[in-house]
Amino acid sequence: MNDFWVLDIEASGLSPVSYPIEVGLVNDQQEYQALIVPENTWNHWSQKSGELHGLLRNELFEQGKAAVVVAKELNELLGRKAVYSDHEDWDSFWLRRLFESAGIEQAFPVLDIYELFDNHMASVFDGLKSSEGPYTHRALDDARLNRRVAIETLKRAE
Fold it and tell me: Is the pLDDT of residue 72 over 80?
């Protein structure tokens, strides 16, 4: 069960008007990372979130990809395969904003990473995550960490 995708998204904040600014995906063979250029109507910027992920809004315009490009790349990469997230609620919200803005239907489901574990192993997962140290709050790094810890948790369940 090592061949599964893990997703992480960094955003402009934790608000109903926030939007995705970075996507990271990883499985056992591939990785994907993209900064996202804010759409014209995406104006919210939380100073607190900016301090966590360390990105500046102007970096997104300089180094990012258009929402439509990222949406197409995600659908192409994932197809209909499920992707796991440790914050399925927020990551699904930001993906909806991305795909709605792009005018493209999202092909893949986002599942809660805790669905991989029973209740006891979910606690093991949380403990292992805590022992790994703080998150970098960069999408690909955090997706890698969550995947690595999920695999270790699944090994311990065997």
Answer: yes
Give CA angle at 91 (50, 49), nearest 5°. Answer: 10
Domains of the chain: 5-157 (3.30.420.10)
Q: What CA–CA distance (Å, rounded) separates 152 from 47?
A: 34
DSSP for residue 103:
T
Average pLDDT of the chain to the nearest whole number: 94
How far is 148 from 153, CA to CA, in rounded Å? Answer: 9
Query: Which whole-number Å values give the CA distances from 75 to 1, 3, 35, 69, 79, in the listed order?
Result: 22, 18, 16, 10, 5
Q: Please answer whether residues 98 and 36 qualify as being in contact, where contact means their C-beta atoms are separated by less than 8 angstroms.
A: yes
Stated pTM of the model: 0.94
